[in-house]
Design a protein that fits this description.
The chain is α+β, with helices and mostly antiparallel strands and 387 residues long. The protein contains 15 helices and 11 strands. It has helices spanning 8-16, 18-25, 28-31, 51-70, 94-106, 110-116, 119-133, 203-207, 210-223, 263-274, 282-292, 309-328, 344-347, 351-358, 364-370, and strands spanning 5-6, 42-46, 76-80, 87-91, 141-143, 153-160, 172-183, 189-197, 227-236, 300-306, 371-375. The two termini are 17 Å apart.
Length: 387
């Protein structure tokens, strides 16, 4: 009997909206390549992601490459995207990854590029800012090594739920970890998770995340590793604003107080705008530059979450409850409830499809034009933690 693996992403999606979950995991049996036949592990995914997801994926790809470099890996296989648009290339640096993604961006239609904005320039600018911000912090950490001898970078973690004493558990927990590091200041091992988001969330959202608890639990139980906790490695996807050039005084940069920018971006724009003579204008800009000092902290943050045993147990029990809810709906998929939020149109890949279906429109053409079917992202991966 095949054991189903449920990732934290899958659990989170079901808790947020059962209809969104159904589009992703159920609709292959109705509209996929083997519709009305046997469907095993196929997911319905968008051909093109929405901008916030695309920008975040780009930044995450650069950070993943940095982790491999940090671990001393000379060359590795870079994978990006899903379905027919998935890229697979051999790379040796984050600059290689940037070059590949820029090439893909330039291959888009002009209208598509306009919709996405200047991603090549903004992503490189943001990533260099990330490197500058954490430059002095890097010596505290060393990339951990798995029992397999491989560096603990981008690997699959899998752990049967009966490890926690559940004799009739409904499957296994399975997920992908970005990075595990040894911390010379706090001691022990810490799981890092790269989160590129539009705005850094408040502390309570980090503390309540079941992802941190489940990932730490899986590593402790399967490898008996001295994992102390979880680190959310946040970066904002919205690049600092480039100040605009004023008509009055002519050729000078805006000093607007509410400008969402940082010191480095503003200083670089001064130099670009005024050329070799930029220093003669410093008296005009010094008050603004002083105001921007330290503002880079609004773009980057690392939130450390120590994980205790009692919180682990609560997270695993809630996880199992959700898996049971998912499995209990196997016989009642016809009327799956929607959870509608004002942010659905911005954050859900299935919003247009959901709206059309709710109005009774024929959705087959929409699915054919905007979605593809592929195996889930964990299928075919080596199970480094097999339990």
């Amino acid at each position: 009997m095949k054991t189903t693996a449920y990732s934290q992403t899958r659990i989170k999606q079901f808790r947020r909206c059962q209809k969104q979950y159904s589009y992703r995991h159920d609709y292959a049996q109705y509209y996929g390549p083997n519709a009305n036949g046997k469907v095993d592990g196929l997911e319905m995914i968008p051909v093109r992601k929405k901008l916030p997801l695309y920008r975040g994926s780009w930044m995450h790809a650069l950070q993943e490459a940095l982790h491999y470099q940090w671990a001393g890996v000379e060359e590795w296989q870079f994978e990006f995207g899903e379905g027919k648009q998935k890229l697979v290339e051999m790379v040796s640096s984050w600059q290689d990854v940037q070059e590949i993604l820029v090439e893909q961006f330039e291959g888009l239609f002009e209208e598509e590029q306009d919709d996405l904005g200047d991603l090549p320039e903004e992503t490189e600018r943001m990533f260099k800012a990330y490197l500058r911000f954490w430059k002095e912090d890097r010596d505290r950490y060393e990339v951990a090594t798995l029992p397999t001898g491989e560096p603990a970078v981008e690997f699959i973690v899998q752990c049967p739920l009966d490890k926690f004493g559940f004799q009739h558990s409904p499957g296994v927990f399975k997920g992908r970890l970005d990075l595990v590091v040894e911390d010379s200041e706090y001691d022990g091992l810490w799981i890092w998770d790269a989160k590129w988001v539009r705005s850094i969330p408040p502390p309570d959202e980090r503390m309540m995340s079941p992802q941190a608890l489940l990932y730490v639990w899986a590593l402790r139980e399967t490898y008996d590793m001295d994992v102390r906790g979880f680190v959310f490695n946040y970066g904002r996807t919205k690049a600092p604003v480039i100040p605009r050039v004023l008509q009055r005084p002519y050729g000078m940069l805006s000093l607007a107080s509410k400008m969402d920018t940082d010191y480095s971006t503003y200083l670089r724009t001064i130099k670009s705008n005024h050329g070799d003579n930029w220093k003669k204008y410093l008296d005009y800009y010094i008050p603004k530059l002083k105001d921007l000092q330290g503002r880079e902290a609004l773009w980057f943050d690392r939130a450390r979450i120590p994980v205790e045993e009692n919180r682990q147990l609560a997270a695993v029990r809630e996880y199992i409850t959700t898996v049971n809810d998912i499995q209990s709906r196997e016989t009642r998929r016809e009327y799956v409830p929607r959870s509608y939020f004002y942010s659905c149109k911005f954050n859900c890949d299935y919003h247009d499809l959901c709206t059309a279906e709710f109005q009774g429109l024929e959705i087959a053409p929409l699915i054919k034009a905007n979605f593809t079917f592929d195996t889930d992202r964990y299928t075919g991966e080596a199970d480094l933690l097999s339990g």
